[in-house]
Amino acid sequence: MVRPGLFLQPHVVAELVGTLIGRIVEGTDLTGREFAVTSWLALQEQATPTSIADQLGMSATTVSAMVDRLVQKGHIRRIPNPDDGRSYFIELTAAGTATNLKIRDKFAVVMGQVRENLEGDADAILDAMGLLEDALRKTIAG
Q1: pLDDT tens-place string over residues 82-134
Q2: In a domain, 48, yes or no
Q3: CATH code, domain carrying 76
């Protein structure tokens, strides 16, 4: 079997993760990418669109459009930044928190299945993925 390279292997993994996340969010009004944003917000409590884009590796325009959709769906709200009238923070609404909690149980089950099927140390794999992420970010930054 041919071993995929540093771009193809992460692409394959992203596709497979996307399939599983799609199953997890099924029955909600969130997409997998929207769930990534709301999950990240649940951990951060509040964030700017720029920090979301930076942390999740998304473009600013993608995050902007996603914020608009999530506001319309009632999952997040914009809060004016008291230190900068041009910017705002984003946080989960009660509905957004409730949806994340609903999804959390399905997520835990699927994550448990992946860990059971994982032939290797999860922390070592995450460390290796972090090294690749760092290299990719440095390459993009020039």
Answers
A1: 888 788 999 999 999 999 999 999 999 999 999 999 999 999 999 999 999 99
A2: yes
A3: 1.10.10.10
Helix (H) / strand (E) element for 87: namely strand 84-92
Half-sphere exposure of 109 (CA within 13 A, CB side): 8
Residue 121 lies in a domain: no
Nearest one of 95, 108, 132 to 13, comparing CA atoms:
132
Q: Does 69 fall in a domain?
A: yes
For 50-73, what is each residue's pLDDT tens digit? 999 999 999 999 999 999 999 999
Distance CA 112, CA 67 (A): 30
Residue 92 CB burial class (10 angstroms; 0-12, 13-18, ≥19):
buried
Q: pTM to 2 decimals?
A: 0.86
Identity at 87, one-letter amino acid code: S
As for how many domains the chain has, the answer is 1
